[in-house]
Specification:
Layout lengths: L18 E5 L4 E5 L4 E5 L5 E5 L29 H10 L15 E3 L4 E2 H7 L13 H12 L8 E9 L8 H22 L5 E3 L2 H10 L4 H12 L3 E3 L14 H18 L20 H8 L4 E4 L4 H9 L4 E5 L2 E3 L4 H7 L3 E4 L7 H4 L4 H4 L24 H16 L6 E9 L5 H19 L9 E4 L2 H11 L5 E3 L6 E2 L7 E2 L8 H31 L3 H9 L1 H14 L11 H30 L15 H5 L11 E3 L1 E2 L8 E2 L24 E7 L5 E9 L3 E5 L5 E2 L1 E5 L12 E9 L3 E9 L12 E6 L31 E4 L4 E4 L6 E4 L2 E10 L28 E6 L3 E8 L3 E8 L13 E7 L9 E8 L6 E6 L3 E6 L11 E3 L2 E5 L3 E7 L3 E4 L5 E8 L19 E11 L7 H4 L12 H11 L3 E5 L11 E3 L9 E10 L11 E12 L13 H8 L15 E7 L6 E5 L11 E8 L10 H5 L11 H11 L5 E2 L4 E2 L1
Parallel strand pairs: 6-16, 7-14, 7-15, 8-9, 10-13, 11-16
Antiparallel strand pairs: 1-2, 3-4, 5-12, 11-13, 17-18, 19-47, 20-21, 22-28, 22-47, 23-27, 24-25, 24-28, 26-27, 28-48, 29-34, 30-31, 31-32, 32-33, 33-38, 34-35, 35-36, 36-37, 37-46, 38-45, 39-40, 39-42, 41-44, 42-43, 43-46, 44-45, 49-50, 50-53, 51-52, 51-53, 54-55
Length: 1250
Amino acid sequence: MQNGTQGTIRSRPVAPIERLAVDKSAGSVEPVSLTNEAASIDDNGKRKKEQQNLILEAPLKREETPHRSSNGDRQQPATSFRSWLFQRNREGVGNGEKLNTCPVTLDKSSVDIDTTEVFATKLDFANVDSTYWSANWERRWNERRLDVNNTSPLKVFVLPHSHNDPGWLKTFDMYFQQQTSHILNNSVNFLDNHRDFRFVWSEMSFFARWWQTLDRHPHLRQKVIELVYGGQLEILTGGWVMTDEAGVHLYSMFDQLIEGHQWIKHHLGDKALPRNGWSIDPFGHGNAVPYLLRRSGIHNTFIQRTHYAWKRWLADRQQLEFIWQTSFTRSDSRSNRSKLKDQIVCHMAPFDLYSIKHTCGPDTSVCLRYDFRRMLGEHSESRSEPVSAANIHQLAVDLIEQYSKLGSLYTHNIALVLLGDDFRYDRRQEWEQQYNNYRQLFNYINENPKIFSSAHIEFGSLADYWNAVHRRQKTFPTLSGDFMPYGDIYTEGQANYWTGYFTTRPFAKQLARELQHYLRTAEIIYSLGRHHLLGTGGHEQLRSRIDADYMLLNNARQQMGIFQHHDAVTGTSKAHVMRDYRQRLFQGIEDTQSVIAHVMQYIQSKAKPVYQPYSGQDTYNDRYHQQGQMPFTTYLQLSEKRTSLDALPVRIPLNLNAHFWNADSSDYPAKARRPAKVVVFNSHAFVVQEAIRIHVTDSVQKVLGPEGHELEFQLNPVWGYSAELPTGLYELLFIAKLAPLSTTTFEVIGQTLGERSATPATSIKVFMSDSWESNSPPVAKPTLSNGHVFNFETSNDEDITMINENVHVVFSRSTGLLKSINGRDVSMAFGAYRSADFHSGAYLFRPDLKEPRQNVTGRFPVIRLVRGPLMSEVIVVYPNTVMQRYRVYHKKSSVGAALTAGIELETSFDLSVRREYFEMYMTLQSDLSSGQEFFTDSGGFETLRRLRNDLLSVEANYYPMTEAVFIQDEGSRLTLLADHAHGVTSTKPGRLEIMLDRKLRFDDARGLSEGVSDNLHTRSRFWLLMETRKQDQQPSVNKSASNKRQVPLLSRTAHRLAIMLNFPPVVMQSRPNALPRDLHTEVSFLLEPADCDTYLLAMRTLPSEVNNGASYHLPSLDRTLLVLHNRAPDCSIRTSPDFRNCEMSMAGTAKRRRGLAFTNVTVLSIRKTSLTGTMDGEYILPEDIQVEPHELESFIVSFASSANKNNSSKNDRESIIDFETQTTGPLLSGYKQFKSAGVNTTLIGKREST
């Protein structure tokens, strides 16, 4: 144990420490729980619980109290963990009354197949031949083949398809021009002339691009619609792309599905909306996609790439088709209805790939004889010969054997055979070749039932297949979980794990999340700001300008959608294609930032800006950049911008000197100053307390909040990798409390010469150390002979401590890296794997087991310590490797704040400066007894339990983390939240390993044909939490159900921090030389916050209701799609102080339904709808906007405008919220309740405020 005034008390691996029992004579400290049950450790290291008397230490003196100096001022003193913990418990932080704050308990779904349990305990991972066919399958096939009483003869649907990647070896545009456009052109003519042929399509990004080329051919567009309605051309899934299912965040996954479905509804009509899913190429399958599909009206789906051991295990049991359920059910009265609502039937293909070689049956050599594409000069694996009278019988016999073996793997004896591959049918000849040869075989087999046992074969769509299946089979096994990771054997009969792409090209993954953030923000503020403008009437020219911005939103949606493709966000395309993707993302960011700037300036300006459109322009871009027009964003600009598509964002300095009336005078009187303005938009339906950072060019005198009161602030140095401090550039930090769905104005006033300020100066300390020092024995004097190279002289040699009311963090003096949190050992380190040549590439991960793990950080870090009244920060730089930042905030928590709950991390790295090739990771090694378990989120939707299999290699135990990963024991949980996707694992108890970046010399033989060496400077942001788990975690309603296990969930604090990490407030600042504007102090669009666990996932203005191609890029007059997500919390986690009021309200017996009550816009009607907004449901009242725990719900909200206030439909009038005309009724009654409760309201109708 190490002790000292600035040191740490390194705890033993004990249960969570909550109070102290002190033996004053010996000076020892023992942990005691709040229930007077202390955790001790016996000789075998096992935990025991024993009753102890609670002995409390005498109160601390004022000078010993954390956060205060001897004169009572806030600061960051050298405080021992013992003192901090006593003070924390004395003030009641983190304790408090135990409330049953779970409105409903989520239980683990009772299913036939739990993928976590089966993957860990039942699958056979033995290497097998790539064309495996077991003896059990052979026996079953023979029994069915010879059964004369078989009432289910073989039925086969041959499904022609073409898998079109929106970028991989070529860019999206290159693929479209060279291949995809030809495929779709050929499909129309061929299907029209061959009514018995079928074709399926899924990538709407390509389809929409092709549809534009038919602009001058309306008869062809009509023909396409007829083919779709007639079932010859089936649209599957209907997403903008076939999304990746490992590293895509829920918002992006969902948004590309909305974009595709809205496009179909608008251009092809409701009858064309997909009813079946199609996911044949993502590398492993998550459980968020089937949920989204089912809630969007899709009842069946098809998946392809799953671990070979899964295919073998399910085929053994004839369970390759199953009902894919969520991992949770609710123990309330509506759970049965919800359970049925979440069902979707899934078909898993039994063999490796979707190409003809792998789809007709188990024997690939036979299947290659039935690929009839033969092009002059084209290399092909095909061994086919044209069907003729001489060979038709043998071809039919061999083909039906393969088909019947395939059908025998399913109880219904119906085979689905895919006929296609990547970019197939791009030439007219192939359509003819495949059709003519197969047609002859089908006719021969169908016309000879005695020879072929009444087998029937036809061309079919996926809908044809599922219709036949549901006629023969009424029940299916149930399954919950996902199919990660994916392992193949088709190249060498040895397992290869596709777990490298979880991390490959992290810069692009983070860039996509940035666009996701700005797009969501732009959608929300555009919908609210535009309807605010429309509801007030007038401003027609301004309205025209804002309507034109809808094109920017459309473009950003589609660019972000393309990047969710399974070869884009995965980082598994060629380098020049990845650059094209980054260009698209960069353009989308610029477009969404423009929309945000336009609307925020309109909302916040008291005198609305005047916009005069140029009358003679033909295109939107020309109008937007027309010379001589007053730019719409002349006063406000974003505080952070990207200068190029390959650079990290930079903050734009706010020039305080420019905000003076007499800029050419050297003596600025105080009365001549005008404040710089900072406007912050909170896009969430809850109160936010967030750290706002901007760069300023001068010292700051004061920061004023929206009510004119002074805010506490802190000036920090602006540091990069270098320790140099720039002159005239500082980081201004203040904590902003933001109302839900609001824009708030803050004022920053610069300091003049001679002006005095009470704000304390930030303390800075810079020093170097030897990171290897911790491995050397303590010596009186460092010498070259005892392992030291340098003797670093500093003011002290003790560890660094940072504290607030919730966390006590210790950092190593020698490494600068994390050492402990709240008395629990949690050490951070960086390392790297050497890649196995030709087996570790963009897709695959396989470390070279002959090479030990590498130390990539070097030996001599530069450590910087910043301490201020609001935040303390440790910055550690390991040259040419990594810069690690740790931040602890000191601001007292309030409702909606989570800043003080953990440690904010920023990890910056750039492997492009390193000559070596390796795969770099970060580890967190704790003393938690987590065993084999760890938990990762699945697409930001569910949290799934993972079990490490020590019989498998490390790459087989890697899983995708989209948003969160944690480990836990009986008393504590260590949670890491991330701002983009990573591959993660737990290689031993108490350890988390997070892959950061991969630099790869060789290809992995999966088609890319190049390594990954285009690494870029990347910044990964995290939050790290050490949370306490309650011992009495089961609500009384659930104690009787001891046989049920609760679903793993994040805590409320973790949910809140994850949301803020991915969707922070948008900060804008005044331009230095712009004419001053009079701004509103605050404009809010919600009367009160939403329910505690309800989050605003999306709010998107729908396209115009006029059903023609031109109107799709115009916004609807009144309709907006509102999507809410209830992120159910884990009730076993002790509540953060941030949610005390939330918990108290939820513990009430008669909790009032809040719903969503908008203000500053007038709501005409609210209607339930499918998730993607394509199916109309019932009308509801605002207080009936409710979302069940862990579910998503969508609503169509119609807002009033000056044009439609008096023209609403009859149904709309039944639920109108027009306060100008309505004087009685439940809606106005609800409004009066808000008024009587003292809620600040502003309604467009009556212009009424309190």
